[in-house]
Design goal:
The chain is of the alpha/beta class. The protein has helices at about 1-20, 25-35, 35-50, 125-140, 180-190, 200-210, 270, 275-280, 285-305, 320-330, 355-365; strands at about 25, 55-60, 70-75, 80-85, 90-95, 115, 150-155, 160, 165-170, 195, 220-225, 225-235, 235, 310, 340-345. The strands form 4 sheets. Strands 6-5-4-7-10 form a 5-stranded mixed beta sheet, with helices on both faces. Strands 13-12-11-14-15 form a 5-stranded mixed beta sheet, with helices on one face. The longest helix is centred in the last third of the chain and has 22 residues, at about 285-305.
Length: about 375
């Protein structure tokens, strides 16, 4: 069991290095990771046979090494495809993505992506059957060059998820009862299903495709219909008791406050969600609510000490609100400025990049 864990870690170490630094030679990988060249050769050979890596161009080893050459290894982005499903309270998105989280184009040149209003009034089984229909339609449009490469469905949703058993235990804003997402979709599509919390999925995306390539300790915050968060420690998403993610939106900031979707009262989300901010009549009232948000961020960061705080979500895309949030943080601690609190570079992809990245992580770990 321990040897298998070591093999898995070394495999991920090599793939993460190539992902972060681009095409690399076996010798460079060995030097950077501390693995022996024999181990790197063994693992990369297996990854080439599996189809995740491919050999690319041959380059000169160095100016001094006359005649010596090295082969660069690339991640084969389109070797495997995934049906990435992101179910949010307002919209659900289904996309066909490659290993690097990019949506592939169909035969007509248009992205294979479909977004629709989440049908919260439908019974869960009917809602998932509709998603399965969309998946089948998108699969039919996949170009012949990559036909048949869809290997899995990666499904991200709000609230508490049982990852091991593929059960959405409580999807805030969508359904309240447990739903066996994996069982239903696997029966519909005959493909394996990976299930993840939507904000944890965005954190994984940030690790593989964003700030996580530089900082391995992050606080990821999604600010939109609600307030979600995820904590990354040494390159791993932290899961607490019962597998729950870090729920900054459900920090209690107002004693005996409004009833929250989580069942408690006075949660941060009841003050600064998109719906609640729109109810406030004046800019000063909005800023007062955002100040509460800023205080919660600084308090959380004081305990977690993240290398960076990354903002996702529709409200975070509004520069006025984002700037007000950062200014509020700086009132309490000057260290939390726009260099420490950053808007994700993945904002144009955030409606599908989370579940796509979860699949990438799954493939890297093997």
């Amino acid at each position: 069991m321990n040897m298998e864990r070591v093999r898995q870690q070394n495999r991920a170490l090599i793939l993460n290095y190539i992902n972060d630094h681009g095409p690399s030679s076996r010798k460079d990988i060995a030097y950077a990771t501390g693995l022996t060249q024999a181990s790197v050769t063994q693992i990369t050979t297996a990854l080439i046979l599996e189809g995740i890596l491919r050999e690319g161009e041959v380059v000169k080893e160095s100016d001094r090494a006359v005649g010596r050459r090295k082969v660069l290894l690339h991640i084969d982005e389109e070797a495997f495809l995934v049906l990435a499903v992101n179910a949010e309270p307002d919209f659900t998105t289904v996309a066909v993505c490659d290993l690097m989280g990019s949506v592939i184009n169909g035969e007509d040149g248009n992205p294979l992506l479909h977004q629709f209003m989440t049908q919260k009034d439908l019974p869960p089984k009917e809602f998932l059957a509709h998603i399965a229909d969309i998946c089948r339609e998108l699969e039919e449009q996949i170009p012949e060059t990559v036909k048949g490469k869809v290997e899995s469905i990666s499904y991200a949703t709000t609230g508490i998820v049982d990852r091991e058993n593929g059960i959405s235990k409580q999807a805030y804003g969508i359904w309240t009862d447990p739903v066996p997402v994996r069982e239903i979709l696997e029966a519909e599509l005959n493909l394996p299903v990976i299930l993840e919390n939507n904000v944890d999925a965005l954190a994984i995306a940030e690790l593989y495709f964003g700030t996580g390539r530089i900082h391995h300790d992050l606080l990821v915050i999604k600010w939109g219909p609600g307030v979600g968060s995820s904590v990354i420690i040494e390159g791993q998403v932290y899961h607490g008791r019962h597998g729950k993610t870090a729920e900054m939106g459900h920090i209690i900031v107002e004693p005996k406050g409004k009833l929250c979707v989580c069942g408690r009262r006075g949660c941060l989300e009841t003050l600064v969600s998109e719906k609640e901010l729109k109810k406030l009549e004046t800019t000063s009232d909005q800023l007062a609510a955002i100040e509460q948000f800023s205080r919660s961020i600084v308090n959380s960061a004081t305990i977690l000490a993240p290398g960076s705080i990354v903002l996702f979500g529709r409200l975070a895309q509004e520069e006025r609100l984002r700037s007000a949030l950062v200014r509020g943080c700086m009132i309490y601690d000057q260290a939390y400025d726009e260099n420490r609190i950053v808007h994700t570079s993945l904002y144009e992809k955030e409606h599908y990049i989370g579940p796509a990245a979860v699949y990438t992580q799954h493939k890297f770990l093997g």
